Amino acid sequence: MTRIFAGPWAAQILADFGADVVKVEHPKGGDDVRRMGFPRRDAAGRETGETSSYLAMNRGKRSIALDIGAPEGQARLKALAGRADVLIENFKVGGLRRFGLDYPTLAALNPRLVYCSITGFGQGGPYAALPGYDPIFQAMSGLMSVTGVPEGEPGAGPALVGYSVSDLNAGFYATIAILAALHHRDTVSGRGQHIDLALLDAQLAAHSHIAMNYLISGRMPVRAGTASQINTPWQAFDTADRPLMVAIGNDRQFAQFCAVLGLEGLAEDPRFATNRQRMAHKPALLPVLQQALLARGAGAWMALLNEAGISSGPLNDFGAAAADPQLNHRAMWRRMPHPDGGELPFIANPVNFSETPVAYGRVPPRLGEHTEEVLADWLGEGAA
Questions:
Q1: Which terminus of the chain is more exposed, N or C, with fewer CB under 10 A?
Q2: Does some domain include residue 311?
Q3: How far is CA 120 from the centre of its chain?
Q4: Nearest-CA neighbor of 69 among 96, 51, 102?
Q5: Do 181 and 305 fall into the same domain?
């Protein structure tokens, strides 16, 4: 019973892993994300009514259309929840209570139910009733304070991460929590439980080492563009033809990096001998490295750096990533047949199981496409 991104993302991961996922939608319009993004066209070039954002979050599922405002819809939802292992919802706090679809009510019908509530701010607290979307949580969690062009540089200011990172992080946490709750139910308690997950909490937790840097040092992290807050050199540099990302993880690698650049003496300079010293003397170090890297193109530098064991890579757009031989070897770019006669391109689940490989059997469903099928499978109801 989720919409937009966070809940559907978690449910799609579970579908990839083999769950029978039933997407419950309102008969009038369904999930709002069906109207977000770019339209997909069929093999004849006609718009299908499906959008890129919806297609990104909903493969592997069946869709049923139920009006939970009507007694019949509530009864069927309760019956489905009575059979389910997991219910995921992202209604406003308390929103399902008036329909008799809240956790205490459904847990009384099915004590083994794992009930995951995903909201912007959680089930309690001064913000619990407030609405929110991804950019709000990027802003409030502190993410935008460390993302963007540094102070003093042209275009300085905070920037929004280029995708709905708060939603997807919450979806990952939801998946982990659901699997943990199922394991506890099946190995310890025999009972399900309620999971209360907030997007704001999830995004703050995902800051991990950046937030811990502040807690330990008291120093406020800053916007650093492509650079690291804790290592240097660890950023994009211009080359003779295009930018190149370089990441130096320790002092030994820095000495090897300098040797590749023909700057052997640089690594012996006391100002740059350790990462701590390099961080303190970045204004003196980075221009020297930048000037040296302008001597060759990115591809030539990558070949030399790879040979020396130095991590580097181009700043790809999605077209370049789609052509990348490593991503293609890993089969990350996929296609599946679509019932309209065309194909649906998609990005694969990155998890590779040795015994239970991910199977992609269902394209994202049309609204209510499987209502009769699911009610028959789960509840034994006929078409009438």
A1: C
A2: yes
A3: 16
A4: 96
A5: no
Tens place of pLDDT for every residue, the chain, 384 residues?
999 999 999 999 999 999 999 999 999 999 999 999 999 998 888 898 899 999 999 999 999 999 999 999 999 999 999 999 999 999 999 999 999 999 999 999 999 999 999 999 999 999 999 999 999 999 999 999 999 999 999 999 999 999 999 999 999 999 999 999 999 999 999 999 999 999 999 999 999 999 999 999 999 999 999 999 999 999 999 999 999 999 999 999 999 999 999 999 999 999 999 999 999 999 999 999 999 999 999 999 999 999 999 999 999 999 999 999 999 999 999 999 999 888 999 999 999 999 999 999 899 999 999 999 999 999 998 766
Specify if 250 maps to a domain: yes
For residue 47, give the CATH number of its domain: 3.40.50.10540
Q: Is residue 214 in some structural domain?
A: no
Q: Count up the domains in the chain and report the number.
A: 2
Query: What residue numbers bound the domain in which 58 lies?
Result: 6-207+353-379
Of 16, 31, 167, 201, the active-site residue reads 167
Task: Show the tokens assigned to 37.
Answer: 């993004």
340 among known catalytic residues:
no
Distance CA 159, CA 146 (A): 9
Task: With CA atoms as reference, report the closest residue to 1 among 68, 52, 59, 69.
Answer: 68
Q: Residue 344 and residue 331: Cα distance in Å, rounded?
A: 15
Tell me the CATH number at 247: 3.30.1540.10
